[in-house]
Amino acid sequence: MKTSDDRHLIDLFKRDPRSVFKRILEEYQDRIFNLCVYMLGSREDSQDAAQDTFIKAFRSFMSFTPQASIYTWLYRIAVNTCIDHKRKSREILIDDETSMIEIASLDPSPEKVSQSREITAIVQQALASLTPDFRAIIILKEMEGLSYEEISEVLQISIGTVKSRISRARDELRERLRKKL
Amino acid sequence: MECQVVRDMLSEYIDDELIQEQKGRIDLHLRDCEACRKELEELLIVHRLFTDAESFTAPYGFSTRVMANLEETKESIWSGFFARPILFRAIGTAFALIIVIIGLISGNILTARKPPSLTSAEVTQSFALNAFEATPSGSIGGLYVSMTGVRNEK
Questions:
Q1: CA within 13 Å, CB half, B15
Q2: Domain total for chain A?
Q3: Is the pLDDT of residue A166 over 60?
Q4: Is residue A180 within 8 angstroms of chain B, CB to CB?
Q5: Domain membership of residue A129 as a residue range
Q6: Please, are residues A102 and A124 in contact by the beta-carbon 8 Å criterion?
Q7: Is B65 in Cβ contact with A51 (below 8 Å)?
Q8: In A, which residues are within 8 Å of B56 by CB distance?
């Protein structure tokens, strides 16, 4: 959605919040859910976090400013929500082998080759070893394909910090994955 | 260009976030430096791993559940209050206490200004009905009494 569309949505939201929000929810639910899965590594927690993200978004929609796009704003809420969830449930089995199995079998479509699941498990395990800041930035870049500018909007950090953080996170991932590749 | 400078820029190089001139200089360096080429290859493998990993979609019925929960949260204003951070709850409680204290103080002021209390005799007097004439002249009762001369007095 473009910013002009976003502005239009805000006007519509004032008149009919529920139906406008349903549109936003249906448009972004998959992207937000995917982000939560890789941030948390647990199906149940991901559903809870994604749901909390949208509820928070609904409550604070009127404070949304069209300088940012709706999806970067939603990503920001989602990242913060996932970090909060992780902090609250200290025992998330993100770096546990059982969690990897759960993630790998989340979408059991028969067309997907087992290699894809194996890759997913490797990626998830590598992500789990990163700090929440590095994990968030790598997911936004590598999985969601956001530009540096968009990531800077989501995480509210400068573009210079985005560049250095991505570079450092990649170096860490490379070190961790070296023995597996 | 030195290897370290190139390596620091490889991440941006992969993301195509460099200006053309910087990109050209890195290309030139990579042509002659095997170590930096190897580093780039490793970073590209990591990059490809992420693009090859699965993308997960929201479970069936997710949006319906969220919409239903929106309804619930809208209705439970009180639970919203109790879910607020401690600071907000403390402010709310302090406000309620201030209202109660103001009520108590104003109540005390009002009771302090009441007229002096009466003795029991004065109270009895104030309730006595003999201050009123039963059949005042000019009333039907008064006319009846003057005509018949009957006065029923206790």
A1: 25
A2: 1
A3: yes
A4: no
A5: 3-180
A6: no
A7: yes
A8: 30, 33-34, 37, 46, 106-107
Alpha-carbon span B28 to B33, nearest angstrom = 9
Contacts of A37 in chain B (CB under 8 A): 56
Across the interface, whether the CB atoms of A29 and B62 are under 8 A apart is answered yes
Neighbours of A152 (CB within 10 A): 18
- Which tokens go with B121? 């005799």
The string of pLDDT tens digits covering residues A62-75 is 777 766 788 899 99
**Nearest CB to B54 within list A54, A112, A181:** A112
Residue with tokens 């990591």: B46
Q: What is the largest CA-CA distance in chain A?
A: 56
pLDDT tens digits, residue range B130-139?
666 777 777 8
pLDDT tens per residue, range A97-120: 444 444 444 455 555 557 788 888
Main-chain dihedrals φ then ψ at residue B76, nearest 5 degrees:
-90, 75
- Rounded to a whole number of angstroms, the distance between the first and last alpha carbons of chain A is 38
